[in-house]
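Hi R.,

Quick one: here's the Transposase zinc-ribbon domain-containing protein sequence you asked about.
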Amino acid sequence: MDSQRNLFCPHYDGCLHQAVKRAWDGWSCRHCPLRNFRVGMPEASEYAHSRPRGPDGT
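And here's the predicted structure, written out as tokens:
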């Protein structure tokens, strides 16, 4: 079920709060009308440059 969550939705924190408050085992954004809305979603290049370097600095 977790794979159906939209981590980049501006309402994600509010939904998480409600799930914890109501002691839900989990929830999904699958049926939410905002499920495809993305705010602040990083580009692949941002991930590539943010990887930690190895012990030899490469």
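Residues 2-41 form one domain.

Cheers,
M.
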